[in-house]
Amino acid sequence: MPHYERNVRFILFLILPILGFLLGWSLSQKNSHPVQGPGVEVKIETNQEDLAPLLGDKPRRPLFRRLTEPKDVDLSILWEAWNVLEANFLYKDNFKVQEQVYGATKGIIDSLNDPYTVFMTPDETEEFEESITGEFEGIGAEIAIRDDKLTIVTPLKGSPAERAGLRAGDIVYQIDEDPTYGITIEEAVTRIRGPKGEKVVLTVIREGERKPVDVTIVRDTIVIESIEWEMKENIAVVTIAQFGTEAVSAFQEILPEIILQRPAGMIIDLRNNGGGLLDVCLKIAEEFFSDQVVVKTSGRRFGDTGNIRVASGGAFLEMPLVVLANKGSASASEIFAGAVQDHDRGIVLGEKTFGKGSVQNVIPLSDGSSLKVTIAEWHTPEGRSIHDEGIGPDEEVEMSFEDYDEGRDPVLDRGIELLTTDEYDTMLEAKKSSEVILEEDFEAETFVLPESEENTEE
Q1: Which residue among 331, 333, 358, 370 is the active-site one?
Q2: What is the CATH topology of the domain spanning 40-133+224-439?
Q3: Model pTM?
């Protein structure tokens, strides 16, 4: 046998087993579907507020969680710190691996400086899901981080928090004498919630009070009645406490009852409504808007930016409408109020709203935990930003604490007054006229600018 043939056979003898091993390993990796590892993509289940199906005719984009490859991020310092702690930390019983993993995950998210992007453990995820279904145990208050302070967005109607005197805008300074500086929403919820019958003391800083105020609240089962309604002076007054999962069916249930009463107008009371689910807000808005954009979104990814409109054929398209709002109105409430303003669909009365205009998706993770991630911001149909700005009322009407304590409601009274007199039409027409004048003035001013001034401005 020639010398070169023996060399080729020898080389093939060495290479073929190696190639076979690599091929087999590659196939096994593809078929094993690991949940961790470089370059792996794991599909995410449909989220509660997936925007893509709502954005007109845009195709729905697939959602993926991409795992970062080690070559892209150097995590050696994390493991170095972990090993140092594990080897040297005195109180070794406090070193619980799962808690450390969750803590590290929360640390990554906290570094984003967005109070609405949060990691939730399996227990916190379960509590969150309970809170949007309408029943849980606690004090019954919407909370948020505002300017790095734990703030009461609103006490829910009829809740222990409301009965104890907690007020929208209160800044929670302490929870059972423990300071709240640097606290996350999840930590606050965990410390405030508890079994029915147990007390929690919130020390709050309140506008108009020189010293912190202690508010003692007895926890109870919180059942949120999403929607209530009544007739007042031939006006249908509909109170929406939350755009939760039950709100659509509750609204559809009262809809024929309202129609039978043939009201002269309708008041939608969104005061102290901390928001809820986008699709619920849209379903209710369908009854007041016809084939119109209700909200715009501005996001980072394809499918998170665009116009969200409702279908045509609502039941109350011609009904004179007044919306009541205050600083406890947030998120979905602000979307509804902003659409009413921008489309001249009615009058907004009360106070400037909270200004929670960012969009979160709740993304489930493999062990039952979840990420609530900010993916976009809300804008009104005319493009006004809601986030941190809020919705200013067409007419400001304040309700003092004395009014509240004595059972008076000047905001509701003003809404009824508007709808039972000619003042509603006059005010709405004046609002439309002022918008037309502003547009004409802007166009005229632009038209008459000398060329030199235009160049100077540029």
Answers
A1: 331
A2: 2-enoyl-CoA Hydratase; Chain A, domain 1 (3.90.226)
A3: 0.68
